[in-house]
Amino acid sequence: MSIRVVVADDQPIARQGLRMILESEPDLEVVGEAVDGLDAIGQVERRRPDLVLMDIRMPRMDGLEATRRLRAVTGVEVIVVTTFDLDEYVLDALRAGAVGFLVKDSAPERIVDAVRSVARGDALISPEVTRRLLEQFVSAAPARAGDATLAELTPRERDVLLGIAAGRSNAEIAALLQLEESTVKGHVGRMLAKLGLHSRVQAVIYAYETGLVTPSRGGG
């Protein structure tokens, strides 16, 4: 079955470029295009996609507010697409529930891989992006050190959280911990539920904000 995608961007050339990249692959289908965040919500309601590629800066309703509303109402996955890899709104979008972000000039294969990764529930945010994003934003944010919810995690769930914070996929975490990938996936689900988080990217942010890992050592 095809992975169904809605592309939201106020620039026609950007929408066209993303459509061409995605539809060159046999398993990807662009089922709708939106010109702003409000349109994106309507497209999702009508088209029922698997995920949305969402620009940040758009008229009427920006991608941040649209992401927040979509995650709250529909649960559809959102990948933020931005002109700048350190856009000032990216972290807020991730906190709103986006599963990660891409830079608009990313190589076509990276965009395709990101869509497929999100569709299968795997990691999207890379170690390089993790370091640059968190060094820019999280290190300047007030720390939530000593968050009591960390104590609710089992040692193995804590190990999995550290792996996610380092940008590792389920397969990489499984190899590191000498576990089956399905076992790691179970640990991820329980860890997210205990911490009240909705995505792996939110887990990365949580790990940095609570001081479990720091930009200087990157979670191992």
β-sheet strand percentage: 5-15%
- CATH homology superfamily of the largest domain: Response regulator
How would you characterize the largest beta sheet? 5 strands, parallel
Strand count: 5
Please give the domain count: 2
The overall pLDDT, averaged over residues, is 83
What is the helix tally? Answer: 10
Order of helices and strands: EHEHEHEHEHHHHHH
Concise account of the structure shown:
Helices cover 48% and strands 13% of the residues. With 220 residues, the chain is α/β, with parallel strands linked by helices.
Helices and strands in order, then pairings?
Blueprint: E1 3-8, H1 12-23, E2 28-34, H2 37-47, E3 51-55, H3 63-73, E4 77-82, H4 90-95, E5 100-103, H5 108-119, H6 127-136, H7 155-165, H8 170-177, H9 181-195, H10 200-209
Parallel strand pairs: 1-2, 1-3, 3-4, 4-5
Modified residues (4-aspartylphosphate): 55
Domain Response regulatory: 4-119
InterPro entries: CheY-like_superfamily, NreC/VraR/RcsB-like_REC, Sig_transdc_resp-reg_C-effctor, Sig_transdc_resp-reg_receiver, Tscrpt_reg_LuxR_C, WalR-like
